[in-house]
Each structure stands twice: as C-alpha cells, then as structure tokens.
Amino acid sequence: MKKFTVSICVFFAIGLEGSGAFAAAPAYPIKPIRLIVPFPPGGGTDILGRAIGQHLTMALKQNVIVDNRAGGNTVIGSELAARAVPDGHTLLVQINNLTALPALAAGKPLTVTVASFAPVTLVAVLPHLLVVPRTVQASSVKELIALAKAAPKKLTYASAGIGTPVHLGGALFASMAGVDLLHVPYKGAADYTTAVLGAHVDMTFGSVPTALPHIRTGVLKALGATTAKRVKVLPDLPTIAESGLPGYDISSWYGIFAPAGTPPSIVNLLRAEIARGIATKAVMDRLPDYDLIANTPAEFGVFLRKDAEMTARVIARSGATAD
Predict the structure, then answer these.
(1) What backbone torsions phi and psi does residue 312 show, to the nearest 5 degrees?
(2) What is the pLDDT of residues 14-66, one digit of tens each?
(3) Burial class (CB in 10 A: 0-12, 13-18, 19+), 130
(4) Which of these, 21, 41, 122, 295, is most buried using a 10 Å CB contact count?
(5) How far apart are CA 87 and CA 232, in angstroms?
C-alpha cells in the first residue's frame, strides 16, 4: 500500500510539473501577424505572400496583414522584420536577394543577412521568362543576341532591383552571350512590367505569372525560359540553355523568415501550417505557376547556404555589382 501511495504521489507531481510547463508556454498567436513583403503589390512575391497569409489567417484564427515595404533592394522591408520582436508576430517573405546581396556588396557591411533571421520554410520556386515588347525585332534568343552585338550598350533590360533573379538573369545572359546590356532597376515587378509593356526597355527576365498574361495577349514575345527545363505552361518555348547558352539556369525562390531568436516551437508551428496550406486546393489554385515545396527549417538553412555559394559564382561570372 505504501509503495502504491508513493507511485501515486510521484505521478501526481510529474503531472503538476507538466501542467505547469504547459501553462507557462506562451499562447501563439495572441494578436495579428504582420507579413512583410519587401516589394510593391502585384509581383510574384506579393502574390505568394497573400496566398500564404490568407491560409494562416484561417488556420491560426488571427489576421495576417500583408505589409508591402519596397525599396533598398529589399533591405528596407528586411530590416523592419529583423528588428521586430522575435515572437512570431512579424514574418518576412524573401527571395534570392537575401543570399545575393553579400556577394554583390563585395565586402561592404550589410545591415541584414541570413543570420538576421530564423528560417521557417522554403515555400516555392518559380521559373522566369525572357520577354521583349512586340516592337523589338527579335523572335528568338539567337536573334536577340545578334541584335545586342550589333548595338553594344544600347539594349536595356528591366528588373525588380539589384540582386533579384531578374537582375541576375540579365547579367548572366549578357556574360554568357558576350553582349553589353544596360540594366534599368525598378522597385518591383509591377513597375518593370509597365516599362517593358510600354517598350521603355527592350527586355526583361520576368517571372511566369508576371509575364504570362501579356504573352497570351501578344503584347510581349517570349523568347526563352530561364530554367534548365521548359516551363509547364509554355511547353513549346525552348529554354535559353537550349537556344545557344548551355548551362544557363536562373529562377526565383520564395521563403518565409522570422526574426532571429524566434522560439523554435513557433517556427515549427508556422512551418507545419504553411506545409498544410500549400497542399490545399485553395492555395494551389492561387499559385498554379509556382513549384510549391515547404521544407523544414533545418533543410531551408542548408538550402540557403548552398544558394549563397551558387549565387556568388553567378555574380562572379556575370560581373554584376550593387552599383
């Protein structure tokens, strides 16, 4: 009887300790979540951020407010996220810029780096397309290269800012093709798309969802896919690699980040909800052109290190700079 009483007491003490630990764990979320998008509305990052935000709003029973903070090659929005309280109520959608900027800065101090954040999950990869206005006298990659060689430093390409996949896509293209192109950076996809639609620039290397509607109306001509494989929505369009530049391969990746120091329990909860979200028909229907992924925080960290190494090689080969 005595042994039984002791066992009951021990079990009860453990139960109290467990319930106390549970009670001490902070509830999450306790207020609306701010999801910072470091680009203007309307681009690929904004589209994805709003789709993820809507799912999290329903799953977590708290409003997720998308906050577009464009400028500074995504640094303005990233700094806001990095300085936020690390409690899961401020998140950031970032792209290749985060891993590209250190190489572009060439040793200059940076206010935000990958170390400024707790990686939550890689959400998607998105192919890009080389497109030109219909007024440009080129209907293939080879014809465009010939046009550029005939007019050095005359042809322009627009991007969503320095360090974006669109910028690096153009820099790598110029390097591999042996041509001189003039880079014209804008604040985001909506701005550079307006520029190319109006033929204010000669080309861009825009994401599929940004460029596709204008290709279908005939306002823009698609000359090649930037990825190693052809894009599923335009299976007859050759890749740039197939069109005379073997090895050419550029795409966007999109990830969710929290400020460094955010508790792992919150990071893992967010990752799990995002993984569930991208498997739903509602999210997939909103993001038909994206290759949806949702890996673990640890896997995302490995991905970021490898991407930084790859991007550094692309920047070194292309000669791209932050100036």
Answers:
(1) -60, -40
(2) 343 344 333 345 689 999 999 999 998 988 899 999 999 999 999 999 999 99
(3) buried
(4) 122
(5) 39
Residues 6 or more apart whose Cβ sits within 8 Å of residue 111:
75, 79, 82
| CB distance 274 to 256 below 8 Å | yes
Number of residues written out for the chain: 323
Predicted model pTM:
0.79
Nearest to 297 by CA among 119, 124, 89, 86: 119
Q: Could you tell me the two tokens for 37?
A: 């998008």
Segment holding 177, helix H or strand E: helix 165-177
- Per DSSP, helices labelled H in 25-140 are 44-60, 75-83, 97-105
Give the Å distances, CA to CA, from 34 to 77, 89, 251, 263: 11, 6, 27, 17
Question: The tokens of 70 are what?
Answer: 């464009």
pLDDT in tens, 55-98: 999 999 999 999 999 988 899 999 999 999 999 999 999 999 89
